[in-house]
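User: Show me a protein chain along with its predicted structure.
Assistant: Here is one chain, sequence first, then structure tokens.
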Amino acid sequence: MLRRGNARTWRNRTAGGAAATLAAALTALAACGGGGHEAGGTGRGSRAAGAAAAPPPIWITPAHGTHGVRPDRRIVVTAQRGTLRRVVARADDVTRAPGRMSRDRRSWRTRWTLRPGTVYTVESSGVDGGRPTSATARFGTLRPQATFGIADVTPRAGETVGVGMPVIVVFDRPVLDRAAVERSLELRMSRPVPGAWRWLDGRRVVFRPRRFWPAGQRVALVAHTAGVRAAPGVYGRSDRATGFRVGPARISTVDVPRHRMTVRVNGRTVRSAGISAGKGGARKYTTTSGVHLTMGKADPVVMSSAWMGVTDREDPRYYRKKVRHAVQISSSGEYVHAAPWSVRAQGRANVSHGCVNASPEFARWFYAQSLRGDVVTILGTDRPLEWHNGWGYWQLPWSAWRAGSALKRPVRPSRL
């Protein structure tokens, strides 16, 4: 029967029944190598039967023949004498597990957690006083009671987005060890910029750069979640990789008191048009001020008074309309959309129920240009956008955003 865990006690056993049992177990696991000499043993603690041996020059953890290894443990290879030349770890003899060699070449360890229910083979070589050394180990990770995975990632793979776009990761079950999961989320960028993750709840975590993305940026997310322990007995079942591109810096400003919307692309004004915003008088009719992001668009969108509890057609507040060229900017029902019925008010008065009403021509143009994650900043109302309303994440100052990280530190992305 194979040993569980990472115990070292078998090194101290003498030959006999225990040695015979271990030999049988290693054979069952398709063990590699069989020497007991210093330069070529099978990892930790090889020795000739009944005889003491010098510690092996290379030590591998987990030990050769171990099964039931926790996937959130790392493979560690240590040169107890001399230095390491090369270490290769493979999952199921196929997929190579990435690792890092120390500067002094005395140790090597895997960068990420291990895949559950997988057999790993580790092959190492080194040199000790001019003599070549080597060690090999083969072990298996446990099959967990339960697993978790990534249910959804925003943006979509290959999508081109605006400069304010967040990265939203949704898990298929609650995460208790948020720090472990957050640590597994690697970001790579063509132009690395600082940012931070913030947990919205146990299933959702969001990345936001400190400042808007540079136009033309390429971003890749590699979630090394396979083997990450999210809760007792719950491990990540697989990794996930995706990527997106940032488009031009399209930043619009809606000046509610002046009834004007101005669109700038890469710092240059490209359009300015009269609009009509929320008529006010009540909070529900007041357009929210702050940094909004475009969340999606549709043509048409059916808008009705049901959002404020009015469904009776006889009620003077009742309405139900098909709205053309609608670009969503919050979760509370705010859009930039065509409003041919209020063209006379656009540029002169605010008469909407909270949306930004525009002429059919301008709304059509804005709709065609818009990418998810474009910035729409609204100024001049007494109702601030809540940071958790839609993608209002830029409403939080950087220090407050960063405080929502389980690791309490910004992300340092690698270069793509």
